[in-house]
């Protein structure tokens, strides 16, 4: 584990004169296989074994139909992952809740999902119980400048609490973080109004590309702030997520310049994957074209 705030990943540095791996292990955001893990009666352990069998080494989790950690307690889920040869790096959780739209049927009485603003201590405690090294915000309300500012305030608290528990905090982007709102973007506001040693980004390479951003230019603008990546591709025609290497994201350009980003963990993600063959083909493409 790197010291808090370090921008040089441990996989870059050779130890005992040996040659260090060129890139981090291939990981998976298991949201990709939510249709399996969230199915009624899903055999979590068996599905994790299938994930390991396609060459995945590290995983992230996300809330789904079976609840947090796919119906398991954090420690139990962590043991399942470890037993199948997987390392559980972090879990996605929402940030600042969006204000529900007014409607004839009030949503005020409905229980609100756990989120960083309201449940940060519980979320960090769960991550610690599972042995995770990262607390990750999956998305947050950022449609107004006020929401952007309040989101940044929540992230400051999350970064502080994660550090106190020997973990780190990161924010996962979509396209909307790059929209101009009153002359600023949520992406720039968060990165320039939080401590670079406590608040990091999990850069979704596909959504950044879809927003017209060059990930390498972002690395240069904010060096060391991107220790986590979502390795996602987008179909050249439809713009929808597709297996890595079959779409329009320039992964060779991005990986070649990865050192500047401070990347430590990379997670394949494919929204709408139809079966485990989709991430399996992404793993194979990366091994053949990037990790060779």
CATH names the topology as TIM Barrel
- In angstroms, what separates the terminal alpha carbons? 25 Å
Q: Please, what is the average pLDDT?
A: 89
In CATH, the architecture is Alpha-Beta Barrel
Order of SSEs? EHHEHEHEHEEEHEHHEEEHEH
How many β-strand stretches?
12
Strand order across the biggest sheet? 1-2-3-4-5-8-9-12
Count of the separate structural domains: 1
Biggest sheet statistics = 8 strands, parallel, barrel
Approximate helicity band: 25-40%
**pLDDT < 50 stretches:** 1-8, 10-20, 102-110
How much beta, percentage-wise? Answer: 15-25%
Radius of gyration: 18 Å
Assigned CATH superfamily: Divalent-metal-dependent TIM barrel enzymes
Brief synopsis:
It comes from Daejeonella lutea. With 292 residues, the chain is of the alpha/beta class. It has one domain: Divalent-metal-dependent TIM barrel enzymes (TIM Barrel), CATH 3.20.20.150.
Q: Would you spell out the secondary-structure blueprint of this structure?
A:
Layout: E1 26-29, H1 34-37, H2 44-53, E2 58-62, H3 74-83, E3 87-93, H4 116-129, E4 134-137, H5 145-164, E5 168-172, E6 180-181, E7 184-185, H6 186-192, E8 199-204, H7 205-210, H8 215-221, E9 228-231, E10 233-234, E11 241-242, H9 251-256, E12 265-268, H10 277-289
Parallel strand pairs: 1-2, 1-12, 2-3, 3-4, 4-5, 5-8, 8-9, 9-12
Antiparallel strand pairs: 6-7, 10-11
List keywords for this structure.
292 residues; alpha/beta; TIM Barrel; 12 strands; 33% helix; globular; isomerase; IolE/XylAMocC-like; Xyl_isomerase-like_sf; isomerase activity
């Amino acid at each position: 584990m790197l010291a808090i705030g370090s921008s040089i990943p441990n996989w870059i540095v050779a130890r005992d004169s040996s040659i260090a791996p060129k890139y981090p292990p291939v990981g998976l955001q298991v949201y990709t296989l939510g249709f399996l893990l969230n199915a009624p009666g899903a055999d979590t352990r068996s599905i994790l074994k299938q994930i390991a069998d396609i060459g995945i080494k590290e995983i992230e989790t996300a809330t789904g139909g079976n609840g947090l950690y796919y119906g398991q307690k954090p420690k139990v889920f962590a043991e399942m992952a470890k037993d199948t040869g997987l390392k559980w790096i972090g879990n996605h959780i929402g940030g600042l809740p969006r204000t529900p739209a007014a409607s004839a049927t009030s949503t005020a009485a409905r229980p609100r999902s756990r989120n960083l603003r309201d449940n940060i201590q519980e979320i960090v405690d769960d991550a610690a119980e599972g042995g995770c090294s990262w607390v990750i915000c999956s998305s947050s309300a950022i449609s107004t400048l006020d929401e952007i500012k309040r989101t940044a305030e929540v992230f400051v608290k999350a970064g502080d609490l994660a550090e106190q528990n020997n973990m780190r905090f990161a924010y996962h982007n979509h396209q909307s973080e790059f929209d101009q709102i009153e002359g600023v973007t949520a992406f720039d506001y968060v990165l320039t109004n939080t401590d670079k040693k406590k608040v990091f980004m999990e850069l979704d390479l596909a959504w950044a590309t879809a927003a017209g951003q060059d990930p390498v230019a972002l690395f240069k603008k904010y060096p060391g702030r991107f220790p986590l990546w979502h390795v996602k591709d987008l179909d050249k025609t439809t713009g929808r997520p597709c297996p890595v290497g079959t779409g329009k994201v320039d992964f060779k350009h991005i990986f070649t310049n990865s050192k500047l980003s401070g990347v430590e963990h990379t997670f394949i993600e494919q929204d709408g994957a139809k079966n485990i063959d989709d991430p399996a083909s992404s793993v194979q493409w990366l091994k053949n074209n990037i990790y060779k």
